[in-house]
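so my prof wants the structure for this chain in the tokens format not the other one, which i didnt know existed until like an hour ago. anyway here's the sequence
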Amino acid sequence: MTDYHVPTADADSKPLESDLDRSTKYNRQGINKHALGDLVGAIAEYDRAISLNNNYFQAYNNRGLAKGQIGDLAGAIADYNRAINLDNNYAKAYYNRGRARIKAGNISQAIADYSWAIKHDAHYAKAYYNRGLAKLELNDKKEAIVDFDRAISVDSNYAKAYYQRGNIQHDLGDNVAAIADYDRAISIAPEYIKALYNRGNIKCETGDNLGAISDYDLAIAIDPNYARAYYNRALNKIVLKDRVSAISDFDRAANLFHQQGDLDNYNKAIKKQTSAYDISDRSSKDRP
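here's what i got, hopefully its the right format
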């Protein structure tokens, strides 16, 4: 009798993937599509992952993120609820639900969610920061500062937290502390245009006109269409009697305000420019 071999399996014959393995694969595919901005495709992948493993709390959280980004806040919150029901220690889901509730206008509920996130992860810098922002929405500045302090204690390079704390310090009248916070924010993120602009404003308020102009210069270098920076730079140049340059800045500010549909500030810039022209004309006539 002739011996023969039954054909062996080729490379396509693999052990069948378990539902859990396939679910994990779909979740990863969802994350990849999410990162590329394909939110609808990402949601479809998360759906597949959940259909194979309806206890996959990370997939619910990820789908909630994608739903929130396409504007489906109710769907997002429902997914975060499901994730939290499956794992009530899941700090990210509380945090993400808090952000969704902020977008939905539910400030107090958002603060509660950020607090739950912090309870489950005491080093969650973003949760402290966002809770601080939410408290600002309620005009609770002192408590907001406490949260920005905590965010900074967890992450000493949290530029946005320094910036927000600087804003509050200024509102509370402590310009020295405000400038120190803006300095720190800018040292971490040199192109932090809002911090540069606000630092310039405080320098203007405190009589450091050259310092203010320097900050507005930096802001304009980052965004050549920053109308308010041109306008405020012009105001400081007027104080320093650099009227020709101030007139140019008022003109640039007026054109930008007009292009941006800000007619109130357009009119202000035109009035300031006209006033600067009048002063300049009077000065030239007074010269011998």
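also thought this was worth mentioning. The longest helix spans residues 263-286.
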